[in-house]
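Q: I have 108 residues here and want to know how they pack in 3D. Can you give me a structure?
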Amino acid sequence: MMNTNKAILKNNDWVKGISRHGEMIIGFVDSMSLEQEAVHVVVAESDNEELIGKTIPMHFTQVEVIPTAVTKNAGELEFLIDLALATGDKEWFDELSAELNEKKQAVN
């Protein structure tokens, strides 16, 4: 059976899945290898705390895209900003910081 995720996965997509060792993984796609049918996922949450912050390879069939929420609350944005800092993703950090600042200005 062909996995339809292969056609829709792209870098920076948030995904969830189970690792080959049975660990629950939530993270985002850092890179992909079409030849190996693998994605490299930066782990944001896992039931194995040692994996958090690490990049692990997973087969396309092991992950599914998490639909993005239309709006994020301030707490979610702050968590994602911390994650962007931890992963050294300046572009994502700038994008999230701008979104958080817009929310704060809308409240004032």
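Q: Anything worth noting?
A: Residues 1-7 have pLDDT under 50 and may be disordered. The beta strands are 14-18, 24-33, 38-46, 55-59, 63-65.
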